Amino acid sequence: MLNRLWLGFFLVAALAALARWLLAGDAAVFAAITESLFAMAKLSVEVMVLLFGTLTLWLGLLRIAERAGLVEVLARALGPLFKRLMPEVPEGHPAIGLITLNFAANVLGLDNAATPIGLRAMRELQTLNPSQDTASNAQILFLVLNASSLTLLPVSIFMYRAQQGAPDPTLVFLPILIATSASTLAGLLSVAWMQRLKLWDPVALAYLGGGALLLGALLAGLATLSAAALASVSALVGNLVLFGVILMFLLAGAVKRVPVYEAFIEGAKDGFGVARDLLPYLVAMLCAVGVLRASGALGYALEGIRWVVHGLGMNTDFVAALPTALVKPFSGSAARAMLIETMQHYGVDSYPALLAATMQGSTETTFYVVAVYFGAVGIKRVRHTVGCALAADLAGIIASIAVCAWFFAPR
Q1: Nearest C-alpha neighbor of 146 from the set 179, 118, 125
Q2: Distances in Å between the alpha carbon of 315 and those of 231, 310, 346, 348, 398?
């Protein structure tokens, strides 16, 4: 799928450039495309330099948390909920700890670090699967929750915004929190409906109802603030949470007598490898998106969507951010490239860039996750996985548009 998507970007760009040359007499379009290729290749390396540091930092901190027992504590805390949502997984099974660690990486916005942990969890779940080529209920729920990507601390997006010169990279913290909560809830409810999970069980209700009440209280408090105050609160809370998590990991390690420096270095080495492996994908997708923009193809597509939205009598402010949302189910690297290109084109704190960042943080890459996670264990029949994951994607996009209109839309 990625092969066709990447090749398609270049073919569409070529057709758009030929149309501009032959029909509009714009021969300069080819110079713009060539310039864009080199500019995007340079930008890829600049982004990667910061990505090296970000992934190295957070995988090092995550290793401290793991050795300090925080992951085990979280697994025990979530154990009663997992027992209701994944009744076929025995209590204390290794899959529970790996699933918890995977969720912890996703919560921190470290999707690239979450993938290898998630693959280990999927293999453990496969040992409990009675049909080796058909996805089990537990595997489907795990994958859909991964695709919905509950991201409470999207450090990768903060990093991209910082690299593009954002005065406050954490400005999108609360919008992403609300949008990703909506996508995760939609994914969970859709799987529960298909699998007849008993979410009205008192224990499940206590966990899910408690989370819903906290989110509702947050929204109620935010509803009393002006747009300027919302942005200010989002930035403040984002910075406090970010530094608070770091302190919690370090203090937990110190209390448990973990050699925090050595543990950090051990985990940081993994971050260096993960970031290094991402560079070719980032160059490939950023160059493809740059060509698409320089040829005029992306502009034509957005104008067409804007025309349809306007014809329906709707506000068109969100249309410029849609490329990120449209490619996100297919390719994380393409969506990342779309986000960076949107920030470059409109400005890092423009409304389209803020909305694109929120969309990027609201969900994961559905078809990539399905292909990688199920392909790793030989699953061929995915059952209701894709439908439930796409429902989560749609909820995340709609919630992103709504919450960014609330927080950031020009008045």
Answers
A1: 118
A2: 21, 7, 18, 22, 13
Copy the structure tokens of residue 325: 């949302």
Tokens of 236: 């403040």
pLDDT band at 51 (very low <50, low <70, confident <90, very high): low
| Token digits of residue 208 | 């899910």
Indicate the DSSP class of residue 312: T
Q: Are the beta carbons of 400 and 357 closer than 8 angstroms?
A: no
pLDDT tops 80 at residue 216: no
d(CA 398, CA 179): 8
Residue 2, pLDDT above cutoff 60? no
Per the CB < 8 A criterion, the answer to whether 14 and 291 are in contact is no
Handedness of CA 80, 84, 85, 91 (dihedral sign): positive
pLDDT value, residue 277: 65
Residue 352 structure tokens: 């389209």
Q: Which two tokens stand for residue 125?
A: 């779940």
**353-358-361-366 Cα dihedral, nearest 10 degrees:** -90
Average pLDDT over residues 130-142: 85
**Which of 43, 98, 93, 90 has the alpha carbon at shortest distance from 74?**
98
Give the predicted TM-score (pTM) of the model: 0.69
Q: By three-state DSSP, how is residue 381 classified?
A: strand
Sorted by sequence, the CB contacts under 8 Å of residue 8 that are 6+ apart come out as none
Residues with Cβ within 8 Å of residue 206, at least 6 apart in sequence? none
Is the model's pLDDT at 7 over the cut of 80? Answer: yes
**170 secondary structure, DSSP code:** G
Tracing tokens 């496969």 back to the chain, one arrives at 126
239 pLDDT higher than 80: no
Confidence of residue 251 (pLDDT cuts 50, 70, 90): very high
Q: Which residues of 310-321 are buried (b: 16+ CB within 10 A; e: fewer)?
A: eeeeeeebbbbb
Q: Do residues 97 and 217 lie in contact, with contact meaning Cβ atoms separated by under 8 Å?
A: no
- Cβ burial of 216 (10 Å; 0-12, 13-18, 19+) is exposed
Q: What are the tokens at 99?
A: 């699933």
Encoded amino acid at 235, one letter:
A
